[in-house]
Amino acid sequence: MAVSGAEAGVGAGVGVGAGVGAGVVVGEGIGDGVAGDGVGEAAGGAVSAVDALLARARSELVRLDPREAAELQKAGGLLVDIRYAELRERDGTIPGALIVERNELEWRLDPTGEHRAPEATHHDLPVVVICNEGYASSLAAVSLRQLGLHRATDLTGGFQAWRAAALPVETGAE
């Protein structure tokens, strides 16, 4: 069962279980309508395959709430925004967050890769992946863990939860 960062210590991590798919992306806003909770039911009451995948992924993560993510960033952790450009343009960005499109995430965050971002310095780096509502980021964080970034996790509720918590957001108008 997943625990909050407060219960496990901000930035603490656990290993990734076998069988969790890497690189699978769930569209923003998919689920039962509750941002960040993740497991909905398909027609007939059965859990869909993608919701089962999401539940398995989340069972391996110590997910952070927005305030925990902000504290981790202040302590040197890396926030990684994987939202589409259109969403960043519409809603703004988190100051200091690294912007990496989801389709480039593994290449940019692999500390041993030739295409890595300068911020991807080592496997012990605390990384918080942020999508729009906290679905795609869970799968992305597990993918990073499979690359050896054992402290990778995601933001419960995504960018929308960050904004709702009244944490800093930069917009193009600023």
UniProtKB/TrEMBL annotation:
Keywords per UniProt: Transferase
According to the entry, every stretch annotated as the Rhodanese domain falls at 73-171
For the keyword Transferase, the answer is: yes
Q: Does the keyword Cytoplasm apply?
A: no
- Which molecular-function annotation in GO is an example for this chain? transferase activity
UniProt-recorded name of the protein? Sulfurtransferase
Which lineage ranks, top first, belong to the organism behind this chain?
Bacteria, Bacillati, Actinomycetota, Actinomycetes, Kitasatosporales
